[in-house]
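Troubleshooting log. The previous structure file for this entry was overwritten by mistake, so regenerating from the original sequence record. Sequence copied from the archived sheet and checked twice against the printout by T.R.
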Amino acid sequence: MMSPGTYLNKRRVAAGLSIIDVAALVNTSPRLGGIDKVAWIDRIEKDIAALSPDVVAALSDVFRFSRRVLEQLITIRSYGPSAVQHAPQLCLICGCSQNDACFTGEATCGWASDDVCTACAPKSLSIKES
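Regenerated output below.
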């Protein structure tokens, strides 16, 4: 199962944002400088820094992800897979789920397989061929 930090990393990348972009856009209290924000976001994505409700709210103001999915992943990491009734189905490439599907211009993505969405299916083929 994907970790909470990996999920946030994949959703950030899917939004087309670098860590530096997020650091420039996120508001923190107390106010952090750019270098400190970059290090803080990096620690979040490596599952080192804590994810409080304030942190989740600050990040959700910058890029799209499902708070419900994030909460489930935190619960699974803390208490094991049996702690949630249904683990979220996540795309291994972009981290999307049924709660935060990719928008491909005209429609949202679906599932090409158990762990790859239709928006990422062509990417997964090129990764396997490399």
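The beta strands are 111-113, 116-117. Archived copy saved in two places this time.
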